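Example 3.2
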Amino acid sequence: MRIAIVHDYLRETGGAERVLDVLAEMFPEAVVFTSYYADEIISDELRRHEIRTTFIQKLPILWQSPNVLERRGWDRVTRLINAWVYFLPAAFASLDVRAFDLVISSSSYCADRVRTRPGQMHVCYCHTPPRFLWQYSERYEGSSIKGRVWKRFVELLRRWDRRAVQRVDHFIANSENVRRRIKRFYDREAAVVYPQVDLLERVRDFEPSGENGGYYLVVSRLDEMKRVEVIVEAFNTSGKPLVIVGTGKLDARMLASANKNISFTGFLTDRELCLYYDRCEALVIAAIDEDFGITAVEAQLFGKPVIAPAEGGFLETVVDGETGVLYEMDGPPSIVKAVERARMIQFDTNRIKENAARFSKAAFIQGISTELARIGVAIPK
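Structure, written as tokens:
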């Protein structure tokens, strides 16, 4: 059986790219298709595979420059350059996967747009329907001419998106939260297979120190959807030590607004990240309606409680009062109260680790294998 694995793009290493690595490991003979990739983030697993790209691979200025510009605060220039992503589906429609018997797309934007022939099986592992299109597009709408034009444009893109995904034979969602979105936006059913959270498997020789650094931890991209600014405000008020791991376009703004009790590490290696998880008091999250939320499970791998909004994927990964604290987001005061509540709870480290064990790499492989077998696809030995 010839297998194609299709992924949106390989611009950074995140949860979706970790899933792609495991899919590539499961199907060692598969050909990987993507719109473009940055060579420095290609994993060792993917280097064992043939990787085919679209014409966008030859236009690096379009997909490399925005990372630099948005960190310098050049938002308007960044938005202008990033406008090309609205036409990314056309690049996937140009990919030729007709020679393959099975197509597996790993999609949070438009990898599921790849065109298949009659008789081909297309299974989509959906990280989420595109959020900028279905959940956040109202941010750009308004009564102005520009707002009305944008609204019509988004309506057109939504129709194209809904029509294109009907070519998918079977959906697998990465959480119940995403399964509900698939039903709501596409009127399609989906099975649920949680992604693997395998940080400790990637750093097998890591030795927990048993030390407590006395700080709270944030591990996140620094953008509006993660609401890290709200956490900074909360810890400015409380004065408790906070370490923020991650980078993003709001770097400069947060650095300027943070008090001395808040420190920033920037990007960390997996081993360095393990050290920060191991010694923290708890992981603090404020992300909006997170699809799944891998960092919440990563912290629990180390037996650390998670303080997160009572919404999105956190409702599936954090047990309130047992493995963390779920709070109703109402600005910085709600985070301050949640941190204080967490301090009053005697968390059972073993119970927290036990909860995290549900999201292992082995469980993900078994889940994908079971779903493929259910629809009649046998995994090659």
